[in-house]
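Table 4 source record.
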Amino acid sequence: LAVDMIDLVDPQTGGDLLDRVRSLRRKIAADLGVVVPPVRTRDRVDLPGNTYAIKLFDIEVARGQAPPGRVLAIGDSLDLLPGEATAEPVFGLTAKWIPAELAGQAEIGGATVVERSAVITTHLAEVVRLYASRLLGREDVRMLIDVVKRQHPALVEELTAALGIGQVQRVLQALLEEGVSVRDLVRIFDALSLRAQVTKDHEALVEAARTALGAAVVAPYTVDGVLPAINLDPQLEQRMVEAVRATEDGTVLALDPDVGTAALTTLAALVAQVENENRRPVLVCAPQIRPALRRLVGPALPRLAVLSYGEVAQAPQVRSEGTVTVPTPAQVLA
């Protein structure tokens, strides 16, 4: 934290950031099934005023601002409110840092008002979710296996006879990397032990675990029983099925670069449109291309979940938010 933000961690001045961080660690453990390492809060004289930085393994991975005496108003009708225009740090929504005494006025105008400490912890939560796979070390996996072993010794014996701890770790990391909770270790381990009797292929093991988890995969994206979904144009999906290639690191899509770029551009626009309406969409595709498609879109859209038709079928209701179409030759040349 910058030196002018120390009030956030001082209980005598109403600072509740440390309490919020402790609550966040408990929530992450409950949601994802992993224990977040202790979060150390330090003041840094080298940071600009009003600024906070989030470090992982001593490397800065995110930065934001939380000016003293201000609250963050999020919404589209903020022009009449004084303050500094900005973007909400997680989803990039239109926002403005306004004087704290105007919070009530902003809410009356339809804006969502967020306190400074809540902005920081929300940003921290997103960083933890994005990097959860890196936080799960081999010793952490060993401890998780030992916990399951107490109640299910036969299952763990079968699992460890078929797979090493490193292989189990890679599967759990792959699930976390795509935002899938690993709380239900019994179901995950059961699926892995069964699949490992047929193949030790990492991608196949991950897909087996996802299938076993069923509705838990779509639950984080379902709001009020509705899953907002973006579909692929059938012609584009068929191109992708034909373009799947196996590599040492898993399957990839060997698409024409122009087609791939145009499809990603269309997809990014659809995702931004849905997120601006405060919904979190998923991309739906055929199961045989799901891992490869995730590898294609992941670098550009790391928060976008890619789900197969079988996984989406577990949602109570699916609402289409748009279709990624095949670019015409004219569009490709443009």
